[in-house]
Specification:
alpha+beta, Glutaredoxin, Glutathione S-transferase Yfyf (Class Pi), Chain A, domain 2
Length: 213
């Protein structure tokens, strides 16, 4: 069985948990306490030398990177619905996974650090950092908004792992103060994601981490 190592409160850990639930994948969860720094400990570094959650092990095969874990789990579980094997459909999903990791995550993470993490550490957000990033965020959100004007989900009328991946960096959008009202199709889509059972099942850990309850 797939062994998954993560802390459910982090962006990419939540992505993997929600994605595995969507896929109906079988796995065993191994908790890595992010706030205690367990992801930098010797045991975890033996699994993922990058020192970042999540990671996964299947037999003697160790895998890092959240999107790669979802791709692998989809094929391992034989899920064709949420990660189709059709060449063009899969390429469409893959391009959103790559875009999320390289472009969308860093932008959204800026807001999470300033408005989510810093207050937990009793530090003040740096509004200059936000002011510098906000034009880029709106540009990227506009790309998503235009795409989501064409269909219910990112790659068509069926949810896929691409939707889970791209939603994950926005997973605390209220705390992040992301201006979704300026991008109505993106806001509609995010609400649809939040209604998915696989997403709702992962909300508690995020609320506890950000002290929202």
């Amino acid at each position: 069985m797939l062994q998954v190592y993560l802390d459910p409160c982090t962006v990419n850990s939540r992505k993997v948990l929600a994605g595995l639930d969507l896929l109906g994948a079988q796995y065993n969860l191994n908790h890595v306490d992010y706030f205690a720094g367990a992801h930098k400990g010797r045991d975890f570094l033996a699994i993922n030398p990058n020192g970042a959650v999540p990671a996964a092990i299947d037999g003697d095969f160790a895998l890092s990177e959240s999107n790669a874990i979802l791709q692998y789990a989809a094929d391992l579980s034989g899920s064709n619905e949420y990660y189709p094997k059709d060449l063009k459909q899969r390429a469409d999903i893959n391009r959103w996974l790559l875009w999320e990791a390289s472009t969308w995550f860093p932008s959204c993470y800026t807001f999470l650090v300033e408005y989510g993490v810093k207050p937990l550490l009793k530090a003040e957000p740096d509004e200059a950092i936000i002011a510098k990033e906000i034009p880029n965020w709106h540009r990227l959100a506009g790309i998503l908004d235009a795409r989501l004007a064409e269909s219910k989900w990112l790659t068509g009328n069926t949810v896929t792992i691409a939707d889970i991946a791209v939603a994950a960096p926005m997973h605390a959008h209220k705390v992040q103060r992301l201006p979704l009202e300026d991008h109505p199709n993106l806001g509609r889509w995010m609400a649809d994601v939040e209604r998915l059972p696989c997403w709702r099942n992962t909300q508690g850990a995020v609320d506890r981490a950000l002290q929202l309850n």
